[in-house]
Amino acid sequence: MPWSRVLAFSDPLLCQAAILAAEVEILPTTKDAFEVEITQVGANRLWVQDFRASAPTVCTVACKPERRSIGFLTESNSSPLQHCGLEVLPGDIIVNKSDVVHRRSGPDFDYGSLSLPTDELNQAVEAIIGCEFVKKSDQRVVHPHPQLMSGLLNLHRAIGQLAHDTPDVLQIPEVLRALESELIHVMVRCLANGVGLEPKTGDRHHNAIVARFEEFLAANSDRPLYLTEICGAIGVAERTLRASCEEHLGMGPIRFLTLRRMHLARHALLRADPLKSTVTRIVADHGFWELGRFSVTYRALFGESPSETLRRPAERISIHLNRPSSLVVTEPGYA
């Protein structure tokens, strides 16, 4: 059954749980207010998403293998996007794969995505271009013909506007079927005729290193990690790991590890009962033993002290449905 919804978030943890077709970890990199609006439309086969984000972030993304998706900047004045160390410009398309990747974006970021079940994308490609669609395995970004890309953006923008302003129109089967058919057709033609941006040999090496780095973090998510331990575990020199992280994450591994643990500590503080928990215990559980230094860094990043976060009422952390009536079905496949 078709559905549409518009969601607003001020909490990265809740935001990442709402993203379709991928497992995502969102780490804001500044103390700027985190505000994200996501517009989602589910047609018969196609899922459409539109993101408007206010704050700079680093994201770890693992797309689900049962669906194939593409992503692109939706506005020419959107902040820059780095995907696996590659600069993505307006007019480019990210071809998402099932591996783990990193993206970083600045403030005022506008991004869209489309996804189809993998077998249905293959069928659509064969029907539209008359042959099997084969792309090199390391091709992550393509640049379609500008006219085709313009058509894709216009259709994506139109369906998002309907979800915002007149979601009932999307309940008319003929309207949604026509939009879905046109989007799939233009999506396939963009991919088939796009010029791939080939990664350099050094980029591929850094991709592999960052993948091992992320695998080790995921396997040890319940404890603090340190650089010497990580370099030994993934078999790479500290200088090489630093260069790879700078390329993919926009920061060195130590800063990324600290940022990640700071956000984990913040989530724990937000969800703790101030009558039963203490800042000292929560902070220590996340690998910080110098409370004074932690507090200074925490305030610089989040704009408040750890104790203020702990005392914050839990009800202030919530998902806001801008159009509750547009939520036709519940939980249509959260990542």
From TrEMBL:
Source domain of life: Bacteria
Provide the transmembrane region boundaries: none
Tell me where in this chain the HTH araC/xylS-type domain is found: 211-312
Kindly give the Pfam families that the UniProt entry links to this protein: HTH_18
Q: SMART domains recorded for this chain?
A: HTH_ARAC
Q: Does the keyword Transcription regulation apply?
A: yes
- Which GO molecular function annotations are given, in alphabetical order? DNA-binding transcription factor activity; sequence-specific DNA binding
Specify whether Transcription is a keyword of the entry. yes
InterPro entries, alphabetized:
AraC_XylS_family_regulators (IPR050204), HTH_AraC (IPR018060)
- Keyword list, A-Z: DNA-binding, Transcription, Transcription regulation
Name listed for the protein in its UniProt record: Helix-turn-helix domain-containing protein
Source organism per entry reads Bradyrhizobium shewense
